[in-house]
Design brief:
Blueprint lengths: L4 H17 L1 H10 L8 H20 L9 H20 L32 H14 L1
Length: 136
């Protein structure tokens, strides 16, 4: 769910205050862009496929020095690295229920079990508490 105008203004004010308080931190954040080092999905998929090929190929071939399928181990490690890269490059959703495309829902987000006694979701109750702090 996108932020409302009021929430966006508040976020901008907080961001500007943070930049004014700590310019060194602000410059480091601006340099990195805040993306967290995203990897193209093609690289991750290609590494996964190469890892599977090495794993199966190592079992199919008779290349087993010392009786241990080293090629299969290398394939597993490549697949594991691809999985780690995929997890590390996944966009963090934080408290929102949108994925990378902006419109997809996270499974299980907003289920009726997270509703309070008055029918509000947890996030709605937290927003109300946050607003009440500044109104008092």
């Amino acid at each position: 769910m996108p932020l409302s105008e009021h929430e966006q203004r508040m976020l901008d004010e907080i961001e500007n205050a943070l930049y004014a308080d700590d310019p060194k931190f602000a410059s480091s954040v601006r340099k990195t862009g805040g993306t967290g080092g995203r990897r193209p999905a093609g690289v991750v998929v290609a590494l996964g496929i190469v890892g599977v090929a090495l794993l199966v190929g190592g079992l199919a071939l008779d290349f087993k020095p010392g009786g241990f399928p080293v090629l299969s181990l290398v394939g597993f490690l490549v697949m594991f690295a691809a999985g780690v890269m995929a997890l590390r490059s996944a966009p963090s959703t934080g408290s929102s229920s949108t994925g990378a495309s902006g419109g997809t829902r996270v499974p299980g987000a907003g289920k009726s079990s997270s509703k309070g006694a008055d029918g509000q979701s947890y996030s709605s109750r937290m927003e109300d508490r946050f607003r009440r702090r500044f109104e008092q």
